[in-house]
Specification:
alpha/beta; three-stranded antiparallel sheet; 9 helices; globular
């Protein structure tokens, strides 16, 4: 299957992408991984992307599309893939359609993880990270530490990352609504959109997604 995963920040796309890709035996292709891989390997696209990033500028769509195209042409993606974070806007969605058409392929579904804005803010703004080890993550509501502000694992101080503040989260949501949300209507018009609730336990959301994709 060839699937695009969409949803606002905090919807759990990364978590669900990993589970779905494993269940469907297809590679999980995320924008973040594409950028890290190309930059670390000093590819032409990676070097071009880094030059924009170092200047604090947005990476042009053509570079992101080029990275995605190269990745989707690798042998492990021949039988399908799950795209996470790409396409990010309608222009990229149109480029993806053209790319797949040229290769004699098409998308099978676009899975939209739906979650209310207030829930997104609650999920992200409540997150607390251990200063000693960023792998130790807690949540004020869902997975609170035994002692407020103290890591259960190592006793380190828990803090809120600056990009997890409510103001920053709402800014990220505004960017999502403006840039990415229009692709939902774009794919809905093509009859590809499948929307599920992203609320509840991870396993329940995964089950919902698998059931929806089977239909």
């Amino acid at each position: 299957m060839r699937i695009v995963l969409v949803g606002p920040p905090g919807a759990g796309k990364g978590t669900q992408a990993a589970f779905l890709a494993k269940n469907l035996s297809i590679p999980h292709i995320s924008t973040g991984d594409l950028f890290r891989a190309n930059i670390s390997q000093n590819t032409e696209l990676g070097l071009r992307a880094k030059s924009f990033m170092d200047d604090g500028k947005l990476v042009p769509d053509e570079i992101t599309v080029g990275m995605a195209k190269d990745r989707m042409q690798q042998p492990d993606a021949a039988g399908g893939f799950l795209l996470d974070g790409f396409p990010r806007n309608v222009s990229q969605a149109e480029a993806l359609d053209a790319m797949l058409k040229d290769a004699g392929m098409k998308l099978d579904a676009v899975l939209d993880l739906e979650v209310a804005e207030d829930e997104v803010v609650k999920r992200i703004a409540g997150r607390r990270i251990c200063r000693n080890d960023s792998a130790h993550v807690f949540h004020e509501t869902y997975t609170p530490p035994k002692v407020p502000g103290v890591c259960d694992t190592c006793g380190g101080e828990l803090y809120q990352r600056s990009d997890d503040s409510e103001a920053t989260v709402r800014t990220r949501l505004e960017v999502y609504h403006t840039q990415t949300e229009p692709i939902i209507d774009y794919y809905k018009a093509q009859g590809l959109l499948v929307t599920i609730s992203a609320l509840g336990e991870v396993k329940d959301v995964t089950r919902r997604a698998m059931d929806a994709l089977k239909k």
